[in-house]
Amino acid sequence: MLIVLMSSNFALLPPAFQDLEDAACKAESHIMGDPRAACFHARFALEAAVQWLYRYDTSLRRPYGFQVRPFAGGAGGAVRVLR
How does pLDDT run across 9-52, given as a tens digit for each residue? Predict the structure, then answer.
């Protein structure tokens, strides 16, 4: 049996983004074994990235507050499935 070890898709992030890399790698590591946990960790990483953008890019204004929920399908936070 051949086992291939792959590095993370997020290993290219510079050291300044270590927290974001950790969160994204955790999501990536759960994708096959526990997809629900992978979604949780992916959302956490996305929220951290969005917060970083608003913190360091002064030309951006927060339209909806601190959460990704409004971007994910409305006030209820339900993601709409397109068919």
Answer: 888 888 888 888 888 999 999 989 999 999 999 999 998 888 88
Buried b (16+ CB within 10 A) or exposed e, 55-74: eeeeeeeeeeeeebbeeeee
Helix (H, G, I), strand (E, B) or coil at 41: helix
Q: Amino acid identity of 44?
A: F
Rounded to two decimals, the pTM is: 0.64
Largest pairwise CA distance in the chain: 53
Is the Cα torsion angle 71, 42, 16, 4 positive or negative in sign?
negative
